[in-house]
Amino acid sequence: MKTIVKSPEEDAYDSPLSSLPDEIILQIINKLIDLKTLCFCSLVSRRFSSIVLQVDSVSFTAPLLNSPTSDKITSGDVDGDGFPTKLFRFLINGVVFKPLYLLRRMIVAPSKPLPPIISSFYGQSFRSAVTFLSKFKGVKSLHIELPCSSHRGIDNRCLFKWKVKFGNRIESFFFLSPNSISDSDEFHVNGNGDEQDMDLSNDLFRQKVHIAFQCLKDVILRHRMLLYIIKDLPMLEEASITDSGRRGRLSLSGEKLAEVKKGWVSSAMETLKSEMNRIEVPASVSQCHIPVLDMPVSGYVMKGVTLVVMEMNGLHDEKDSLMSSEDGGSEDKEEAAYTEAVMEILEKHKDRMKVLL
């Protein structure tokens, strides 16, 4: 008797999932917001490919160039959102991993070239992710997590966070670094090893200013990355780029996102290339050091606090810039404490700000 060999796509359609309406499958796939997982799902069949591209939320972690973890598959904690574990395992085992050999038969479109400032830090994996991401024309929410940047001379144990005000261009950058953080009862919350030294030595001061400038370089890269990606996603309502160390975040949503996209999309190609390759340096840099900073709202106490403020386009009101620095997303308790610390300094200790540049 002749054996009938089914094609991989026919085999996929024999799955019990093939009998489900597109709407139900989309509800399931909408739980799998990780870009790599969505990519594997899209390889199951033409039907699945068209459904996958209708998801409204996408998240992915971008590896650094030559990162040894660039092929690691990650996904969100779907169980925390109430997604049934058995159904999730069934979907992954029966639909995702089974047809992986179809990858050999796929005709993969060439990755889009990235601006040099981005491609110099992120390799082929990131280019492929951006190319695939650009197909999600209906996506409304995008979250990108980058690995913590490793800069020479920076101790990763050092406490610091940054915030940035931006539109089509970066306007203001804030860098805050305390030696230690404790609550109102002097219970130690966090420290970098120098918590007993509330005074700022010259070496420590130079180190913190150096870190601030390195962070500004990271912000410039992430800002251009964000602009480059959002221009291809017409339905996008919110977008953010952060890092695994939660040092800072660039986020846009609502009217601010629409305004930035409008200015970016309407620009001529030569203008876009010029903007991507433009050299950005701060027009002014100021800093101050506060030995002990009490924060009445959170109840925290910071010791040995250094604040560095950089204005990219001349002098602005730092407090107003900080208030409008975030558009979209929400702060956790730690982030809120850092924001409160900057506000306290700008309101009560502005006379201590010294101009460096």
From TrEMBL:
Listed InterPro entries = AUF1-like, F-box-like_dom_sf, F-box_dom
- Per UniProt, residues of the F-box domain are 14-63
CDD domains registered for this protein in UniProt:
F-box_SF
* Cited PANTHER family: OS05G0510400 PROTEIN-RELATED (PTHR31215)
> What is the recorded name of this protein?
F-box domain-containing protein
Q: Which organism is it from?
A: Lactuca virosa
Taxon lineage = Eukaryota, Viridiplantae, Streptophyta, Embryophyta, Tracheophyta
